[in-house]
Amino acid sequence: MRHPWLVGSLLAEDGFEAFSAQHFGLLAITAGGVAGAVWWGRSHRGTPGELAARRGFAVLSLTVVLGMQVYWLTPEVRNVHSSWPLQLSDLADYTAIFALWTRGPRTAAFTYYIGLSLTLMAVLTPSLGQSFPDPRWFGFWVRHIFVVWAAVYLVWGLGMRPTWRLYRTTVIAVLGWAVVAYTFNVVMDTNYGYLVRTPAASTPLDWFGPWPWYLLAAATLLLTLWALVFTLPWELARGRAYSRAGDGRLRT
């Protein structure tokens, strides 16, 4: 079924603007896909069809990610400041694919923590210079939305729950990324992950002062969010489930 209001909003705007009709349409697609991913995952969780479903999702995501990476590295488009997959959200593209293909808990956790914080923030408050139908417009939206969908599919659809151990492995992986990305930034005079300086445009990072204080503040906020909102509720629910199971054994 076609949606003329969404098609019209895509064609009507010369450039992308946050919180425009186009943006709200894309947010509606994201939200609808989130609900659909949860339902779809639960419908085949633990069944013979699960392997084909999640690996099909992985292949589709890989096709989009590699296709866009090839495009960004073409001579006409390539830019050392933006074409290499050195953002955390870029890394989440690949961990989502691996998690979908292998059902690996570490890559699933990384996708969950990054996808539902940094990637979702990019969807809600995008900084996008290209407009429809530029390939980079499609690449931005499809990649980011797919990661959000993959995160909820893995956790709420397939039941791959985060734990404190997976929280720690994700933090270690992010620290490893920071070392690699910072080294690349220094050598190539780039600013992936805003690890060298704040963005040229005004952002909340400006509230936290100069380098390195804004990095320390942002990291503290992010790690606290992951701990208290993304991990603790699951651990408390797991503890209650173990307690109920223990009470049941005692009564039998």
Number of helices: 8
Q: Kindly, what is the distance between the CA atoms of the first and last residues, rounded to a whole number of angstroms?
A: 55 Å
**Biggest β-sheet strands, sense, barrel:** none
**Unreliable runs, pLDDT <50, ≥5 residues?**
none
**Percent of residues in β-strands:** under 5%
Number of domains: 1
H/E topology pattern = HHHHHHHH
The average pLDDT is 89
Task: Report the strand count.
Answer: 0
Based on the structure, what is the oligomeric state of the protein chains? single chain
Classify the helix fraction into a percent range. over 70%
* Class based on secondary structure composition and strand pairing: mainly alpha
Radius of gyration: 20 Å
Overall geometry comes to: globular
